[in-house]
Amino acid sequence: LADTCDGIFSARKKEDMLRIMKDSRLGAFGGIALIFYYLLYYVLGSEVLNGLPGLGSQIGLIISLGLISRAMLALGHWQLVYSGYNPNGMGKMMVGTPKWGILLGQLLTLVILFFIIGVKSLLAYGLTTLVVFLYRRHIYHLLGGMSGDTVGCMGPLSEVTFLLGLLALGGF
Prior knowledge:
The chain is mainly alpha-helical and 172 residues long. The chain is 74% helix and 0% strand. The protein has 9 helices and no strands. The protein has helices at 2-8, 14-22, 28-50, 55-75, 90-93, 99-116, 119-143, 148-152, 154-168. Helix 4 (55-75) packs antiparallel against helix 6 (99-116), helix 6 (99-116) runs antiparallel to helix 7 (119-143) and helix 7 (119-143) packs antiparallel against helix 9 (154-168). The two termini are 27 Å apart. 33% of the residues are buried.
């Protein structure tokens, strides 16, 4: 998340954005993004958790957040075009992920979310999928493809979006 925000919000050329993302140091935009992410995660998570009846539902929410994060990371591999800085980087390994595997993962995610949370989780999943595809489209526009950092950013983005969706729907 931090590396992606440092690069994307630098408003530079593609090569410079990728170079900034590769840099291990935390920049101003990355620091601000992390602060906002953790604040949003805390506030949204607290609101949703406070509305849950018991410990089982709270554990279900925590499992669901991990599940949605991984599902959206997998969905980000759909026909992935790599545009990273390093030709041997992590993002390059994700090119060519089989579509059937991604679809099977999404189907299993939907079934598990339905059994943990119910119908509201399916609507929140839909919202999260939309946001992830809009994010991906924007990154493709800026960089011509994805890098390992930009794919990794989908995890935190999807968790916060899923929480927002659940909160908008009234929790569980």
